[in-house]
């Protein structure tokens, strides 16, 4: 019978070697983890600025599609009203022609002309009546008017159908752009959440007055500590700037146009609306409003400044400062002009 032997236990020497190897691996792993450098404040700021630029671009495209959808909805509503009126006109013309036929039928004197009126379409009637020479001037006018009304109605229906198809495409585009904007906003928020309180204060508020947002209703922007024009704008710009100042401290929310939250272009649109001026909804629209300003030395309080390939906009506040709704995680506030990003264009309203 075969014997069953217990397996030999590993020697103490071998156990010592294995334990030492494991300890060395853990130590190396820990050292590698510790060796990974933490991002500096400047690196974090650079990452945040890049994310903010990408988020601004996504938000402006979303705002643009949202505005386009609203315009299409207004157009369809107007077309529906026109269609209803045109249909009523067509019905009136048909009733008038029907009355002629009814009168002659009642007297038993339905002449060939009235029979022609009962043709399937006005085109059929016109072609037949013209060939027979049996169209009176009044009847010709009635038929021509009916024909014109029906052509107008058909055109309006076709236009409404095309606009509805455009609305469907815009709605799908809007959903995709909203998802992209939300993704960028979430990435920005995740980066902010990963920072310590000190890092966040340095990165987010480094270019702000007194390290944060100014109080609402402040009559003067803070001093930037550097050179910068302080020329007053005209009465319209002064009114818009005063309105924007009342929004200091309110939160940035993408797609928002006020009065309690804003994205960058939404704040500019709202502020100028309070001054009686209608601006476009997006930076892509607003950059075409007003007249160009050629140099920062020529800036006036209330002028619009566009940053980072016109993906962001703020209002010049004087003293080298800008009043704007910066990005996710912040509020409407003043920031240094040289802090926000590269200037793309400046406009005087």
From TrEMBL:
Record field: compositional bias (Low complexity): 211-220
Disordered as annotated region, ranges: 203-231
Domain NlpC/P60 span(s) in chain numbering: 234-349
GO MF annotation terms: cysteine-type peptidase activity
Pfam families (alphabetical): NLPC_P60
Residues in coiled coil: 41-89, 143-198
Alphabetically ordered keywords of this record: Coiled coil, Hydrolase, Protease, Signal, Thiol protease
InterPro entries: NLP_P60_dom, Papain-like_cys_pep_sf, PG_Endopeptidase_C40
GO annotation (BP), single: proteolysis
Signal sequence annotation: 1-35
Protein name (record): Cell wall-associated hydrolase, NlpC family
Species of provenance: Streptacidiphilus jiangxiensis
Lineage: Bacteria, Bacillati, Actinomycetota, Actinomycetes, Kitasatosporales
